[in-house]
Amino acid sequence: xxxxxxxxxxxxxxxxxxxxxxxxxxxxxxxxxxxxxxxxxxxxxxxxxxxxxxxxxxxxxxxxxxxxxxxxxxxxxxxxxxxxxxxxxxxxxxxxxxxxxxxxxxxxxxxxxxxxxxxxxxxxxxxxxxxxxxxxxxxxxxxxxxxxxxxxxxxxxxxxxxxxxxxxxxxxxxxxxxxxxxxxxxxxxxxxxxxxxxxxxxxxxxxxxxxxxxxxxxxxxxxxxxxxxxxxxxxxxxxxxxxxxxxxxxxxxxxxxxxxxxxxxxxxxxxxxxxxxxxx
Length: 280
Fold this sequence. Notes:
The protein has one domain (about 15-255): Rossmann fold (3-Layer(aba) Sandwich), CATH 3.40.50. It has helices at about 25-35, 45-55, 75-85, 110-140, 160-180, 215-225, 235-245, 250-255; strands at about 15-20, 40-45, 65-70, 95, 145-150, 185-195, 195, 210-215, 230-235. Helix 3 runs parallel beside helix 4. The protein contains 8 helices and 9 strands. The chain is globular, with a radius of gyration of 18 Å. It is about 45% helix and about 15% strand. It is α/β, with parallel strands linked by helices.
């Protein structure tokens, strides 16, 4: 499905639709596909920031269109998808990358709203992102839906109830969707990033195991998507960690988490370690 840069005109080159393109992994994915000759349909709330990014990287406007939308609002992101269909056509790949992450404490009433917002963006927003494209892809008999989950969704972590829960839901949702679309020609890939160097982790003074740059993640993600992987942990070393996390008995997992710092809440000034895949 990949295309070498410069081998086709803008009108005939394949199209990728990416949410959460304002920074981090979303921007890196966009640049990775652009450099491979793809056209870009990018969804972001910070459109002016994206315009600056386009100028910085000399992105040809004929091959990149911006769609402002709030992924946490289903009608907003669905409208962006429909606009893409009307203006650019049906993408070959749709990457639901948008996501947010905050710590939560169930004892704090205000954190229930935080959890609601995280699930609205990370889970419902993903389904709403895919929604406009599912039927057209089925009718065409081809297409690729990519959901960005996280290693943090493999097991629960203290203070991460909302984020870990949302990413666990993403993993199960994408697996269910893959079953729904079996035999239609539409592929579903779930990507589980570990620690990625993004603006969210730039100021951290502690060790982040197997840390990747956003660009390194994007390169590996594109290859996994091109292979048609059903699920892929990036980097592979975190895949080993995730496999161990899955099989570790609950008692040992609880013991391993004893004393682990909690993730900062939305209004908590404390600076504590990031989660794997926090930028997703």
